[in-house]
Design brief:
Length: 599
């Protein structure tokens, strides 16, 4: 059922937009009248009775990593729709800026881990668009609520995959979120009836998210050429079949070597690596901006015998919520006091992990982390009865095997007995084949998106400890090779950089600064940079970043665009972006364990 316009018409909003307040338009009846018509998206029916609309004043955000501090007013809107012929319900949440602050922009946001969104509060991603005059949206994917994650609905029963939910998580829900959000925005603000004080009737559309949200962004760019004018994508969890199993690789290394390093030993190895490689970029500041030079020139064996000490730690809870607050997302268990020296076995485990998964016959199956990344996947657990450290199976990797490969409704993989490097390779292949058209998300031909004029700002922390930074480098290079096969390397990079740029963030971890390298900058204003690129043609030759922690809080920094690498020189510490072939080569893996290209 559609409601007729009441209280205030869109014509009134169009003519005197700045005289209209949130209180005038943030009403159930106005939102109901602004919903897209049934059939706007074929097969979707909107439930106008589900509409909620609440004005929010003086909302504030501070300390966020993906956008600056801000205070703003917005209209908090939710409504639902169904897919015809099903009994599902998909909930959407949009934050609309005050009419006086709306700048003809729409932003879709994504999730993390196994969540399709980052939450409906100011601690999520929605504030990142509203502060730039954009309507900001998220979806629950039809999973039951905004807090219900994908793994809660993945299986209909043991052995029976919920394919509709899988496709919603894979790409369909975000496609519908954007289509509906853009149309709803146009009607709500009546963009098509050009406002007297507006300079354009165009609605600029954007995407911004990191991790799983980064994969969700690529799922749209690869399929729907006209959906976004610009996509800001961080550390994407694409190449899903390989990425999820890769979380188990560190566990199998420990099991194969027969040694389970205490967390403090790993910490000592990482800290020694950072200290040794710090100056390779031309300045000593506690940040390894050239992890490639570190990988090429540093031998971790020199850390053998290094003493370490860590005080006892009590258990704590953190991260992305209960279901995915596995140890990858910062929910440490209690650990005892640790006092010892770095062992040869500990270094062997670390070096094998950094080298990446190889099959038993020596073929490279997957890429791995840079030397300065913390060994999060390799975290071990303490047995107080035996006073020994042992295997702690990765939560994300374990759940991938049980729920998504074996189709058993449990998140716990209880044992890795008999699991070898070849087993991991086989699990990767199984997931790749089963979910290639929905979760793999590595389609390299982006010609339609480029032809439509779209732009991509892709960033990844060099010291990412959950998704290897080399994963983003591989995809960027795959797009370059597929789209520009007849150009030289430099020519193809130049052509690609016209619309798709990759930035490796020095000293950054997974979608955030790294506590082990607090002086590293982080690109907090990416959406503002993208807006300038799309709307004003300002090409981000280097990426704007801010020191959010450490000794230089608030200071500006610039990040080189791949494949150029940073180097500092002179008494003033001037940064240049240099071409270094050996460094570039160190990021690119020959994955010869597969019978077909792995983009």
């Amino acid at each position: 059922m559609r409601y007729s316009m009441v209280a205030i018409s869109t014509t009134a909003l169009a003519v005197g937009a700045y005289a209209v307040t949130i209180n005038d338009v943030c009403t159930t009846s106005y939102v109901q009248a602004s919903l897209p018509a049934d059939g706007f998206v074929r097969g979707l029916t909107f439930d106008s009775t589900s509409v909620t609309a609440s004005p929010v004043f003086n909302a504030s955000v501070s300390g966020a990593e993906m956008f600056p501090d801000a205070t703003f007013d917005f209209c908090n809107v939710t409504f639902a729709y169904t897919h015809d012929g099903t009994s599902d319900t998909v909930h959407l949440n949009y934050w609309l800026p005050a009419p006086a602050n709306f700048k003809n922009r729409y932003l879709s946001t994504g999730g993390g881990g196994l969540a399709i969104n980052s939450g409906t509060t100011t601690s999520g991603s929605l504030p990142g668009g509203v502060q730039y005059g954009a309507v900001s949206g998220l979806t629950d994917g039809g999973f039951g609520s905004f807090t219900t994650q994908f793994d809660a609905v993945t299986l209909l029963a043991n052995g029976t995959l919920n394919w509709p939910a899988t496709y919603m998580f894979g790409y369909q829900a975000h496609h519908e979120l954007a289509l509906i959000g853009k149309e709803f925005t146009k009607t709500f603000f009546n963009i098509l009836a050009k406002r007297a004080n507006a300079t354009s009737t165009k609605l600029y559309s954007y995407y911004q998210a990191c991790s799983e949200g980064g994969r969700e962004g690529w799922s749209q760019v690869q399929r729907f050429a006209n959906q976004f004018d610009g996509a800001v994508i961080g550390a994407p969890a694409f190449r899903y079949g390989q990425q999820q199993v890769n979380h188990l690789f560190s566990n199998v290394v420990e099991q194969t070597v027969g040694y389970f390093p205490p967390p403090c030993e790993f910490e000592a190895i990482v800290n020694a690596t950072i200290a040794a490689c710090d100056g390779m970029d031309g300045q000593v500041d506690g940040v390894v901006a050239r992890t490639d030079l570190c990988k090429i020139n540093y031998n971790p064996n020199v850390t053998i015998g290094t003493p370490y000490y860590c005080a006892a730690v009590t258990a704590s809870v953190g991260g992305f919520g209960k279901r995915i607050a596995k140890r990858q997302f910062g929910a440490p268990a209690a650990t005892p006091e640790q006092n010892g020296t770095v062992t040869a076995n500990g270094v062997e485990v670390a070096m094998t992990i950094i080298d990446g998964l190889k099959t038993l016959d020596g073929k490279q199956a997957y890429l791995s982390y840079q030397p300065t990344a913390s060994f999060e996947d390799a975290a071990t657990t303490y047995d107080s009865t035996t006073n020994t450290w042992g295997l702690s199976i990765s939560g994300l990797g374990g759940e991938w095997v049980t729920r998504y490969l074996d189709l058993i409704d449990t998140s716990d993989l209880t044992s890795l007995d008999g699991v070898t490097y070849d087993t991991l390779r086989d699990w990767m292949y199984e997931g790749w084949q089963r979910y290639e058209d929905v979760l793999q998300t590595t389609w390299p031909d982006l010609t339609p998106f480029n032809t439509a004029g779209g732009k991509v700002l892709h960033y990844h922390g060099e010291s990412d400890n959950s998704i290897p930074a080399a994963s983003s480098v591989r995809y960027h290079d795959s797009v370059r090779q597929i789209m520009y096969p007849d150009l030289s390397y430099n020519e193809s990079i130049a052509a690609l950089n016209d619309w798709y740029r990759l930035y490796l963030v020095p000293g950054a971890a997974h979608c955030s600064p790294d506590s082990a390298q607090p002086n590293g900058p982080f690109p907090q204003t990416n959406l503002a940079v993208m807006i300038e690129w799309v709307e004003n043609g300002v090409v981000p030759e280097t990426l704007n970043a801010t020191h959010l922690t450490g000794d230089n809080v608030g200071a500006n920094a610039q990040i080189c665009a791949w494949p150029l690498r940073p180097m500092w020189s002179g008494s003033n510490g001037t940064m240049s972006c240099e071409y270094d072939q050996a460094s570039i080569d160190s990021w690119l893996y020959t994955l010869d364990a597969w019978p077909k290209p792995l983009y």
